[in-house]
User: Fold FAD-NAD(P)-binding protein from Citricoccus muralis.
Amino acid sequence: MTPAVPGDRFTIAVVGAGPRGTSFLERLLSVVEEAGESAPVPLVDIVVLDPEEPGPGHVWQTGQSELFLMNTPSFFPTVAAAGTPGLRPSSAALTFDQWRMANPDRAQVLDRTDYPPRAVYGRYLAEMYREVTDALAASAAVGTLEWRQTEVVHLEPARRVTPVQGAHGAAPRKAILTLGDGSRVAADAVVLAVGHVPARLTGEQHRLATAAADLGLEYRGPSIPCDLDWDAVPAGADVLVRGMGLNFFDALAQLTLGRGGRFVDTGQGPGRALRYEPSGTEPVLHPASRRGVCYLPKAELDAFVPHAVALKYLVPEVVQALQAEHGPLDFMMHLWPLIHRDVVRAYYNALVHNRPEILGGSGPAIEFLASLVGLLESAGRGEPVTAHQAQELLHAYAPGMPFLDIRTLARPFEGRVYDSGEEYQREVAGFLEGISSEAAAGEDSPLMVAIGTLHAARLLVKQLVAEQRLTDASRRRDVSGWFETLVEGLASGPPLTRVEQLLAVARAGLVRFVGPDPQFEPDAGRSRFTVSSPQVGGADETLDVHRGTWMMEAMMPPNRVLLSTSGLVSSLLADGTAVPYTVEDEEGDPVPGRGFDVTGRPHRLKGAGGAVQEGVFVLGLQLASVQWGTAIAAEAGRDPDGRARTLGDADAAARAIWALATG
Assistant:
């Protein structure tokens, strides 16, 4: 290698040292190692800017409660391209599972199918950051590498300026990053990997927060769970909770196990496997959500998608043919009928093989399946016609059996009315006990196979979204409008043990389910929050009203750049250095999307008027307008254009920046 003089060094600023920033550095290390010692390149200086511990960042900080679990098992996540097809691994690359096996003491002797504490994953991220940066710093290609524990509040991108004194051509001026203390950093390339950022409250949330301040109540808006002071919640307090997703289960764990309670094995079957023994210091939780029930538990599996699942209809060649005929695709018209057929076929195939007696025995069951597959193979039907004809076929073999409606499963209590809160409590418990039995059965459960098929379809749809193969209107109306919510509720839930814990705490009288479509209000006369469901009645023909002095929003701050209160994100938008990606609604009117407007991979930031910031690259959550599911980690060993897209994005940015440095 022929090093350049210090004045020729190319400076890379990495804004955000969490998982996405660490992935970028690992990919940069791979590029540097691939270039080898003979490459005549200038020295590179790297400055990493993040107020949090590098590697874990804020969300995965190593000092947080170990009651907060990841939502994926040990075998799933990686921050580095170890075994990723098509990507050269760096010398430091390890998946979490590889790190777990090499470090059983630091990984708490986790099994590959266990769901790790976030703090443990944070230890992996911290070690990966150290290993990667140590290797970069030792490379002859890197002049300096430093982490500054600071926030970036402003970015002025590089401009091309004409040199003075008759010099020829144009010279690049470096980008200027202003830090929280007022100092500045000049950089030739900037990687924005800022991750989760704070956001302002919505109008509804602001109304409730204002009422809380006026009435002396306690309101907690959307938050990262490790940021909350859980000890502030008094023993015995009635806490109204909006949201029954993953943040709700964090609250449940912290306010039960975190209060000294314990779960005891009962020896009974799924759904009643645990008994909760209170400490006496717990509050009473009143959880509510639009669906009226928590996210469903994940099936007990040793794979991210059930081994039995193989999509038959939503396959790349069919999608390619549809796109060749129609151009950008409409999800509801072109993709959902294929997904629906895949889900139906997978469910009844599993039913025939695992529970043939329901269909009259092995012979009739096989006959039914052959007829069903013949029906599904006939192209040209939408979901309603397919469902109607399949229902008629099913009734010929099992007259009393309802046909699988995967969309109704996501809202199991829709259209039902309950005379009392106690009746609804029993209904939810019975539903979750049944679902727990299905989850415990794993691939032997037709329902879990159907949900796994829906999940597999989601993974392909995510790739199609990232490749811009759907119309903007359909993405907004269908994918964001209902499909994303459907799959999240059915396939992105907690491990089964969390739902077992919820049921045990409910049986102990410390959880009271509210009902679907809840209405939260402040009651000024009683200085309380109230919540009720229009489907759950109470005494004297009124609604069952839950009251409490505390209210919590069990959800993360929204990932929408226009709602962000981050100084950096706000200033980028205010200056026109960045703009939100704009989508069209059904009438063709522009609507701002969730994330920044960016180019295709490598994702360079675009500003006002479509101006491309050539040296500014975006990774992670702020790509939400052009990708779906930007918060999830890369899946170990998977395609960097699909299930490990975050690694593919990081690799593309690293290679583009290296080309700038060496060009």
Observations:
- The chain has a mean pLDDT of 94.
